[in-house]
Amino acid sequence: MPLNIVVMAAGKGTRMKSSLPKVLHKLAGRSLLQHVLSRTAALQAQARIVITGHGADQVEAAVAGAGIRFVRQEPQLGTGHAIQQTVPALEDGGSTLILSGDTPLISTPTTQALVEASHGARLVLLTIEYADPTGYGRIVRDGEAVKAIVEHKDATPEQRQIRECYTGIMAAPTEALKRWVGQLSNQNAQGEYYLTDIVAMAVAEGVPVVAVKTTDETEVLGVNSPSQLAHLERRFQRQQAEALMDAGVRLADPARFDLRGELQCGRDVDIDVNCVFEGKVSLGDGVRIGANCVIRNATIAAGARIHEFTHIDGEAAGVSVGEGALIGPFARLRPGAQLGAEVHIGNFVEVKNATLARGAKANHLAYLGDATVGERVNYGAGSITANYDGANKHRTTIGADVHVGSNCVLVAPVTLGDGATIGGGSTITKDVAPGQLAVARGRQTVISEWVRPVKKK
Ligand code: UD1
Ligand code: MG
């Protein structure tokens, strides 16, 4: 049976007080609208329509993709008017699922249940009981039977006592929906075309109306203000944290954990407080992450330890950290950092587009960019690869067992052969053969019995 999915996203979102359209504000790193679209991606739909209006160009550019069609609503005269714009685009013969772009955490099973209950023949409303229903459309019943939805501003004092509210999510028989939205009027408190007026029309026509009540407030909470956005973010983070803990991950504090993407964890993973994971991150068995780390697009192998205040950002190229490696505190791993097993990267060391083989160490205040570093290399404090000549990037190749003293500048392109030694303070501009010692600095001058100047009286 054909299914249309319509996401309403044309509203202004005045209370966000932002120049960014409301549905593009981010929850856990993805826009509100992306959440809605991804949570309904599993439903087999003939048409996926996003209604845009306020900031339409921006919204469309942000979520354009396979199978999504945009219908513009200009001006925005209410939710019923929004659905009117989609009528030519709706496939007949089945149901239409209507969602709100600002209600991001709707669950896939709930949407499936609504569609199944509608089955092209029934109007199915998702409802919830609120302790404080102020502002919501109320579900008016006669006995058990749903009779209408009345908007808060249009409700009588008695109707305002009703605690069962419409969540803004419904599944309707498509052909009837098209007919009903053509008959809406805007004679009401807000002068808008209310989609919710179709309920009374269905009742009048004898079309069955079903209210499906959810008890999960999180899935129907909408975002209207920065405060509500932050509140929903914490709820969502808590859900993610609980799911990880159920899978055995040890979080020092689930309230101080943020995942903005996907996190895969092996067994016995420990994550200390205030860590942020973004994009795709994978942590192998026994990985320990210290407090205050930010980790994005990275793969961290079993037994590795990421100490406090480390920043890892693989961007598109990714970062990989080998088994048993020790990183940080205060380390920075950038795109293309590929660290082998047992590598040590210490405080204030930056690694970018560089491969370090097993057991290589750079423990203090160093830069390794565009470099290939062999096994067991010891890279001294304050040493850097000078990889950029002002126009192009060049590579530094360091063989196995090389010892680079402190405060060296390796001017790329340059190759240090296996087992070479570089004296501290050297600026190396020429290749060094295996086993050689290279020292490139001024010789020390010594003056015996030197008398220091004294201050004139
Ligand atoms: C709506 C419901 C109300 C329900 C509440 C749940 C109506 C008339 N009322 O009220 O019963 O309790 O949701 O949150 O539907 N939109 C458009 N074009 C428009 C107007 C709105 O696309 O012209 C979009 C908004 O961007 C938003 C959604 O529709 O995503 C809901 O609109 P909103 O103005 O928030 O409706 P409410 O007043 O909250
Ligand atoms: Mg709303």
Report on the structure:
17% of the residues lie in helices and 33% in strands. It has two domains: 218 residues, Spore Coat Polysaccharide Biosynthesis Protein SpsA, Chain A, CATH 3.90.550; 199 residues, UDP N-Acetylglucosamine Acyltransferase, domain 1, CATH 2.160.10.10. With 457 residues, the protein is an alpha/beta fold. The model has no long low-confidence stretch (mean pLDDT 97). It is built from eight helices and 36 strands. α2 links the parallel β4 and β5. The strands form six sheets. The protein has an eleven-stranded parallel β-sheet with strand order 12-14-16-18-21-24-26-28-31-34-36, with helices on one face. A seven-stranded mixed β-sheet has the order 5-4-1-6-10-7-11, with helices on both faces. The chain binds uridine-diphosphate-N-acetylglucosamine (UD1) and magnesium ion. The site of magnesium ion (MG) has 2 residues, from loops.
Instruction: Assign the CATH architecture of the largest domain.
Output: Alpha-Beta Complex
Overall shape: it is elongated
Which regions contain 5 or more consecutive residues with pLDDT less than 50?
A: none
CATH superfamily of the largest domain: Spore Coat Polysaccharide Biosynthesis Protein SpsA, Chain A
The helix tally amounts to 8
* Share of β-strand residues: 25-35%
